[in-house]
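INFO  loader      accepted 1 record
INFO  loader      residues=78
INFO  predictor   begin
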Amino acid sequence: MCQAKLQGNQVALKLILPIPVSEERTLREIQAIRQLSSPYVPRVIESGERTLCGQKRHYIIEVFIVGHTYRALLQKQP
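INFO  predictor   done
INFO  writer      dumping tokens
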């Protein structure tokens, strides 16, 4: 994940790792994420695909939420 500015707003860019499932399934899951409406899930601004280093990669651009990563929270636990 990386942070960037899109139209003056801070956003999070997530590249979906290529995994051995069908592209159709990946697209369905991205569409499901776009339809979520919850105060606990960042709003998706845009999604799509680009070719990077010869590989097609799907991406999601979400509203950036300031806070801790899940990994950081796990590392704090005894």
